[in-house]
Design brief:
By secondary structure, the protein is mainly beta. The protein contains one helix and 15 strands, in the order βββββββαββββββββ. The longest helix has 6 residues.
Amino acid sequence: MKIQSLFLVSVLSVLVSCGGGGGSTTSGFTLYGSSSATASLVGALAAVYPGAPTMLKMKIYEVLVSTSTSCSNPVSICTHTGADALMDLVAGPTLCSGSPAAGTYPCMILKMSDTFTFKANATAAANVPGGVCVAGVDTQMDIYRNAEPDDGNWKDVNGTAIDATGTVATPGEDVVYIFASTNPAAITVATDDYQEVTLASAMVVPGQATFYTNFNDQFSVNGANCWIESPTMGFR
């Protein structure tokens, strides 16, 4: 089973300045990362099993937002390079702290690696069939892979096609973009369903917010591999 969109956000205890996108700005806005919406939220996908990651690290290179559900004219609010790009969603650190333009942003775009590493907890190890999930063991996933039906269909923010590498068994790292909108049908640049994500709520500035990606109880099996299905996402 191909994960339909792996997502987002948090930094290894690093505060990152966010640039304003033009227009009025406001100070004191903070965006945090979280691996769950609430402690009790459970995914509703079929063929998923109880459990939670005790670590989930991925590389986030840039976060962009748009005031349109189509994700048009996105503005970059955070960039990460080197070690700062490696983020553990479970750690719940600060993603951005700065002064982005005041407004409502129903679209967020992530420039990120298509591979990530997670560790399953004991609950996942006990419930996922076949013993494929082992508690505390690093497991790598590749969400955009060579020779899959969507290979070459993913786009960057300029609409240029991205070629996929790697397989389920042998991940290959590619830089991809994930488009999250409160109305995915309105997205104009990305046209592949696997690259589009439903955003449960918009980001509102000024203030502070936590962007959550809830992977709890989303464990599954992909061949002989421990896998995590697409998370619930939004702001709280």
